[in-house]
Amino acid sequence: MKTAIVLGATGGSGQVMVSELLNRGGEVIAFGRSQRKLKALIKEHDNNPKLTYALGDIFDYQTIIEAAKDVDVIFQCANVKYQEMKTKLLPLGESVMKAADALGKHIVLVDGIYVYGHQVAKGDEAHPHQPHTKKGKLRVEFEQLIFNSKWKNAKALIVRLPDYYGPTSQNSYLQPTLEGIAANKTSIFIGNLKTPREYVYLPDAARMIVTIAEKDDSYGENWNIPGAGLISGKEIIKISRQITGNQKMVIPLTKSTIRFIGLFDEFMREIVEIMYLTKEGFILSGEKYEKRIGTIPKTPFKEGLRETLRVLMAKEK
User: Fold this and answer.
1) CB 225 within 8 A of CB 209
2) Beta strand residue intervals within 23-149, DSSP E
3) Whole-model pTM?
4) CATH number for 103
């Protein structure tokens, strides 16, 4: 893979994909709507000559075609807001696949685990797709769209991440907790503090995703991207306090609390149906990756949290 384009390059997952691709010596095109953010991203990479940007709209496939015509792989990291998922998720999928098909490109789509619903078996790629939520059912439709036989020329794969964290993270469930601790302010934790849950460190995820994308026989499939193990919110807060020295209160938000807040906040209202994951968790199996790709990178939580909090605290200064 000599050249790649990252759609949604200034988002949390998009930024780490850009970094990982550059680390491997490839040429990267950062694609997005905001010239200001794209220029800032290039500046963060010290104006690396291998990093350029293209302005465009993820919902306008013609702009993607124009930007991606000379690349080897398209990485689709753009997403839609929870409250806009019903109306925008499938059009997004249609747009990126239309562009990839017109160009005959490989395309990698970053997605989550809502398609699985409650965990009823080993968390591998064969886990039943039996979602009980609106978002989960939409994600199943999204997957069916991506792997639809109408795309004659595109080669697609989907990578599925659990909850995540990292220096570039922006909208994860853990973000308000770490931002509050970094700022030495009272913060919140979404869900049960005692439930052991899986989190993937975004730089680890990027390494796995690019490695998968480099192999031609990876396409046409789903791939799970597991984290470094299980950890509770209580443990995350303890480690974060040790790293920062900040001891301000962290308030856990239960489903009932979020439902109440949702009466006044559209985004929080959309979180309610996903709260089952904060209570039950879902553990992804990495057996397929280990068997066909190799060793799973697993940055220890203390190391990943230290780097994440270092970046967040620097932003506070």
Assistant:
1) yes
2) 27-32, 51-55, 73-76, 106-111
3) 0.96
4) 3.40.50.720
| Packed helices 134-146 and 85-103: angle between N→C axes, nearest 10 degrees | 10
How far is the first Cα of the chain from the last one, in angstroms, to the nearest whole number? 39
For residue 297, report the phi and psi dihedrals to the nearest 5 degrees. -70, 130
**pLDDT digit string, tens, across residues 92-112:** 999 999 999 999 999 999 999
Contact (CB, 8 A) for 135 and 240: no
Residue at 151 is within a domain: yes
Our count of domains for the chain comes to: 1
Region 128-138: mean pLDDT is 95
Is 186 part of a structural domain of the chain? no
CB atoms within 10 A of CB 138: 17
Residues contacting residue 255 through CB under 8 Å, at least 6 positions apart: 272, 275, 279
Residue span of the structural domain in which 120 resides: 3-165+199-227+283-288
The answer for residues whose C-beta is within 8 angstroms of residue 208's C-beta and 6 or more apart is 159, 225, 289, 293, 296, 297
Predicted confidence at residue 1, as pLDDT, reads: 78
DSSP 130: -
Cβ contact 190:258 at 8 Å? yes
| pLDDT mean over 291-307 | 97
H or E segment at 36?
helix 35-44
Least confident among 121-125, 213-217, 270-274: 270-274
Contacts of 236 (CB under 8 A, 6+ apart): 174, 177, 301, 305
166's tokens: 């990292």
Question: Mean pLDDT, the chain, as a whole number?
Answer: 95
| Domain-embedded: residue 117 | yes
Q: How far apart are CA 62 and CA 184, in angstroms?
A: 46
| pLDDT reading at 254 higher than 90 | no
Which 8-state DSSP code applies to residue 193?
T
Structural domain contains residue 137:
yes
pLDDT category at 267 given cuts 50, 70, 90 is confident
Cα dist from 51 to 6, 73, 210, 286, whole Å: 11, 15, 16, 31
Q: Binning pLDDT at 50, 70 and 90, where does residue 296 land? A: very high
